[in-house]
Amino acid sequence: MRLRHATVVAAISVAAGGSYFALRSPSFSFNDRGGATAFEELRRKISDPSAVVPPRAAQVSTLAGTTAANPLDVLVIGGGATGSGVALDAVTRGLRVGLVEREDFASGTSSRSTKLIHGGVRYLEKAVFNLDYGQLKLVFHALNERKQLIANAPHLCHALPCMTPCFSKFEVLYFWAGLKFYDLVAGKQLLHLSRYYSAKESSELFPTLAKKGKDRTLKGTIVYYDGQMNDSRVNVAIACSAALAGAAVLNYAEVVSFLKEGGTGRIIGARIRNNLTGDEFDTYAKVVVNAAGPFCDAVRTLADKDVKPIICPSSGVHIVLPDYYSPEGMGLIVPKTKDGRVVFMLPWLGRTVAGTTDSQTPITMLPEPHEDEIQFILDAISDYLNVKVRRTDVLSAWSGIRPLALDPTAKNTESISRDHVVCEEYPGLVTITGGKWTTYRGMAQDAVDAAIKAGKLNATNDCLTHDLRLVGGEGWENSHFTVLSQQYLRNKLSHGKVVPGEMDSVAAKHLSHAYGTLAHRVAAIAQDENLGKRLAHGYPYLEAEVAYCAREEYCESAVDFLARRCRLAFLDTDAAFKALPRVIQILATEHKWDKSRQGQEVEKANQFLQTFKALKNAQFHDGKHN
C-alpha cells in the first residue's frame, strides 16, 4: 500500500514539474521521415481559404472504387469524435483512409455531451483516496488533451470558470486544497489558477446562488477552470479537416457486413449501404477500425455473432434553461448531490445547460430522458439557487449514451473507468471504445498505432495531430467578428423585395465562433443570396448557414442542421419546430429534393425533436421568459 501511495505521489510530482511526457510516449513527432514538411503541408491544406471539401459523390466514388488489389489502408466505422479523429490522424500519416457513418457525424454521443473539456477532478480525487495510478494517468492525459483541444479549435472551445459552493469551513479547506492540487497536477497545461471567493463576492459573481439553504449558510466558493466546447461542431470540424487532408469521409453510409479473405478469414473490408440512395458497394481496406461508440458491440457481432460485449452503456441526461439561471461566463459545479453524484449549471450558447445523471441504459438510436431524471436535475439545482426552479422553464432536455469501458467487477457505472480500450480481437479489425470527448485525439492516436501494427502499414510519418488546427481555427482571433460586421450586410427577402440589414454584432459573433475563419463564406451567402434572415426569433442562426452547411459540411437532412450544425434543437425545442419548415425549404433547393423527400424530412425531424422533452408552454424570446 505504501509503495502504491509513493508511486502516485511521485508521479504527481513529476507532472507538477512539467514532465508529464515522461509518463506517456510523446503525442507527436517531427521525425526523420519528413514530419515537419508533412505538417506544414497539412496546415496549408486545412487552412487554405479557398479549399472546399470534396462533394459527397466523389467520396462515394473513392470508397466504391477500391479493390482487393488496391485497398484503402484504413477504413473507419463511426463518425463520432473518436472515429473522425482516427480518420484525421491516419490520413495525416500519409495513409489512404475512408470513413463511413450510418447516420450523421456526431449523431450519437458526440453531440450529447456535457460540453465540458475537463481534466477530471473526480478522477484525481479517486486517484488520491483509492491510490489508483490508473486514474492518475487518466488525469495527466486529459489535462494535456484539454489544453490542446482548446488550442486546436479556438473558435469552438474556450476556458470556463466553474464555481464550487462551500457550506462549512471544512468544505472551504477541502475544496481549496483539492483544486489547488488540480492546478499543481496540471503544471504547464494549467488554464488559470483556482481561487477562493467570499460569500459576498460569490453572490456578485453568481447572483442566483443561494446564500442560505436547509440548515446551512454559504461560507464562500472556490472557482477553478476547465474547458467548454460546441461539441458537435468540433466533431464536424474534425471530419471536414480529415476530408480536406485527403480522407474519403461519408455520412449516411452503413456497414452491413464484413468482407473476409478466403482461407484465413481475415477482415479485408466491408459491404456498405448508401442510406440516402439504398445502393450498396464493397470497400476494401488493409485494416478496419471499429469506432462506433455505443454501437461498437453491434459492429463486432458482424465479425462474430457470439461476441461478448465490452462496453457498459451509461445514460447522461441534460436540460437547458433560460440564461437568467446562470451568469454569462461562470458555471456552477456541485460536487455531491443527494446520491453522491456531481451536478452542474453552465452557461452555453446564451442559455444554461444543467445535468447530469449517470445510470445504466439500453442502447438505442434515439435515447430519451425520463421525467424522473429531469426532475432529479431540477430538484438538485434548486437546493443551491435563490430563484424558483420550474419544469416549465425547461427549453430542451436530452439523453446521451456514454460507451464506458466495461469492468466486469464493477457494481455501478460510477466506478467504471472512463479510460479507453483498444484491441484487435479478429485479424484485420481494430476496436476502440470507452474514453471521453476530451481525450478523443489521444484515443485516435492509439487506435491508428494499433491499426498500423495490425496491418503492417507504411505510414510516411508519425502522428501530427497534436498541434494541428482544425478547419476554421488557423489564424482565428476573438476580434474576428468585427471584420464581418464591417464588411457584410444581412440581406433578406420580404414579399419579393430585398431588404438590406446590418450584420449586427450578435450575428457576427455567432458566425465567427461557429465557423472560425470561414465565417466570411456564410456572411457572403447572407449578403449575396439574400439569406440573412434569422431562422428563429431570439437566436442568431441565419438562413445562410443552412445553405453553407449543405454545400461545405455534408449536411444532408433537417435534423443534421437543427441538431448538429447549429444547436437549436438542443437549446430550444419549440424554436427548432418553428424553424423546421424554412430549413427544409432551403435544403430542398440545395439538394433538389422532391415533395416526397420533403415530407420524409418533416416526419423524421418531428420524431427526433419529440425525444427532446421540453414543455410546449416553455417559451423564450429575446432573453425574457414568458
UniProtKB/TrEMBL annotation:
Keywords assigned by UniProt, alphabetized: FAD, Flavoprotein, Mitochondrion, Oxidoreductase, Transit peptide
UniProt cofactor(s): FAD
CC terms in the record's Gene Ontology section: mitochondrion
Protein name (record): Glycerol-3-phosphate dehydrogenase
Pathway: Polyol metabolism; glycerol degradation via glycerol kinase pathway; glycerone phosphate from sn-glycerol 3-phosphate (anaerobic route): step 1/1
Family, similarity comment: Belongs to the FAD-dependent glycerol-3-phosphate dehydrogenase family.
UniProt xrefs under InterPro entries: DAO_C, DAO_C_sf, FAD-dep_OxRdtase, FAD/NAD-bd_sf, G3P_DH_FAD-dep
